[in-house]
Design brief:
Blueprint: E1 4-5, E2 15-17, H1 50-57, E3 62-64, H2 67-73, E4 81-83, H3 85-91, E5 96-101, H4 112-124, E6 129-134, H5 138-150, E7 153-159, H6 160-165, H7 167-175, E8 179-183, H8 189-197, H9 205-218, E9 222-224, H10 231-237, H11 239-250, E10 257-261, H12 266-280, E11 286-292, H13 297-300, E12 302-307, E13 316-321, H14 343-350, E14 355-359, H15 361-374, H16 383-400, E15 405-410, H17 418-425, H18 436-444
Parallel strand pairs: 5-15, 6-7, 6-9, 7-8, 10-11, 10-15, 11-14
Antiparallel strand pairs: 1-4, 2-3, 4-5, 12-13
The structure holds pyridoxal-5'-phosphate.
Pyridoxal-5'-phosphate binds at residues 109, 111, 138, 228, 261-268, 336, 380, 382-383, 411-412.
């Protein structure tokens, strides 16, 4: 049997799958925090182009991927599906383990699946420039790459600590022609306010979001872009699972277990949404989202209406959340730090169609080192959470003597985030589990909002 299953370019899916057509319970609408009423599409028009807003609310099951987007996808897609023979052998498991390698894209993760689509829709809408935020730089570099492909300007507000500590993704962005500034920056009103308080302000994702949104709504021909969480982002990512379905069918396989790591939920959704459709129609599949014990959104958070950002500038989204006041522990190196979770993922967890597990960072890095030592590729720290779950499930299959088929999304490589591995290897990382009292405190603020139904 082959180690890699390749899909021909001509067999790459030509449509994205929209789960909103098949959700057993529809998504509760986003709310205007000032009125508690559902927001209308035109309220989002200063922030996103209308063609993407239409996708955000669409109930159409299949959405055609535009020709120009397909052309750009061909730079790295279809991505190979790997059989993890060496990992199986090392674990002495009867399970068959497959992983979809999304690390082969130019920026090294799944993120350009939506960055390319978003840059395209902005361009055809007449937008000339895009603004966004980035933490460690994966999203910023994906959008820089996509804007460069479509001839759009790109401005990235990068959380200052990461800007200083992790120069390589900034260099990627600049190589692709984007302007990347440390946030808080003097370029926006929001940024100047934080700089007045502290000229050396380390920044946060929440502050960077506020800066990027302010830039978008106050600059000519500019819109904002988000790399995860929203429905249209998850839609664009479904090419991963649609390809995987074709690749598995080529070798007569179908998964018993589908696994992904979840920060905002986009790479996990990209893989599992086409499979959850089968589950809704009666297939027996276990679908598992993996997250850090230090940011346990799905396993310990509550299903509430919450802001998407710390600065309370976004509409209220119905999602599992730890509260928008959540600040990741400084010792946490493994990514997946967002306080909330995509409304679609949250809804499916509520409905019992998927499950979630949390892992501590030492066990996830150990899993990543095992993977690097067997399959060779060094995974992104985020991806390690999914690998730890796969190892757990493969060991269980061994104990039970069952030939389970496990499918994982290998969301990206870790070559530009080796500092996290360095911290692990030199013994500087510690486990941290977010205390229950802290979660109670963070969620207290949200009691004033209605509960999503
Ligand atoms: C951004 C990122 C994630 C987390 O984001 P999701 O939206 O949850 O997918 C996971 N893995 C990699 C490699 C990433 O770059």
């Amino acid at each position: 049997m082959d180690r890699k299953i390749f899909l021909n370019e001509k067999d790459m899916p030509k449509q994205w799958y929209n789960i909103q057509a098949d959700l057993p319970n529809p998504l509760p609408p986003p709310l205007n925090p000032a009125t508690g009423q559902p927001i209308t599409p035109d309220m989002l028009a200063p922030v996103f182009p209308m063609n993407l807003i239409e996708q955000e609310v669409s109930r159409e099951r299949w959405i055609d991927i535009p020709e120009e987007v397909l052309e750009k996808y061909l730079i790295w897609r279809p991505t190979p599906l790997y059989r993890a023979y060496s990992l199986e052998k090392y674990l002495k498991t009867p399970a068959r383990i497959y992983f979809k390698n999304e690390g082969v894209s130019p920026p090294g993760s799944h993120k350009p699946n939506t960055a390319i689509a978003q840059a395209y829709y902005n361009k055809v809408f007449g937008i000339k420039r895009m603004a966004t935020e980035t933490g460690a730089g994966q999203w910023g570099s994906a959008l820089a790459f996509a804007c460069n492909q479509f001839g759009l300007e790109c401005k990235v507000y990068m959380v200052r600590v990461s800007y200083n500590q992790k120069p390589y993704r900034r260099i990627l962005m600049e190589t692709w022609g984007a302007k990347c500034v440390p946030s808080p920056s003097p370029d926006t009103k929001a940024g100047r306010k934080f700089l007045e308080q502290n000229p050396e302000h380390p920044g946060s994702l929440g502050i960077s979001i506020s800066e990027a949104i302010e830039d978008a709504v106050t600059s000519k021909d500019t819109r904002y872009s988000l790399g995860s969480v929203l429905n249209h982002v998850l839609l664009h990512q479904t090419i991963i699972g649609l390809e995987a379905q074709k690749q598995l069918a080529m070798i007569g396989e179908y998964p018993d277990i589908v696994v992904g790591c979840a920060g905002g939920g986009s790479n996990f959704s990209g893989l599992f949404l086409p499979f959850v459709r089968d589950k809704i129609h009666g297939k027996k599949i276990k679908i598992v989202a993996c997250e850090p014990a230090s940011c346990p959104t799905l396993t310990k958070g509550h299903y509430v209406y919450d802001f998407g950002d710390t600065a309370e500038t976004t509409p209220l989204l119905p999602m599992y959340s730890l509260g928008h006041g959540f600040v990741p522990a400084p010792i946490h190196a493994g990514g997946l730090r967002y306080h909330g979770m995509a409304p679609i993922v949250s809804r499916l967890l509520m409905d019992g169609l998927i499950e979630a597990r949390a892992y501590t960072q030492l066990e996830t890095f150990a899993a990543g080192i095992t993977f690097a030592g067997t399959e060779g590729f060094i995974p992104a720290p985020e991806t390690n959470h999914a690998i730890q779950c796969v190892i757990e499930e493969a060991k269980k299959a061994k104990e039970e003597g069952k030939e389970k088929v496990i499918l994982m999304n290998w969301s990206g490589h870790g070559i530009i985030d080796l500092a996290a591995y360095d911290a692990y290897i030199s013994g500087k990382l510690e486990d941290y589990v977010l205390p229950d009292e802290e979660i109670q405190r963070l969620l207290k603020d949200l009691e004033k909002f209605p509960k999503p139904k």
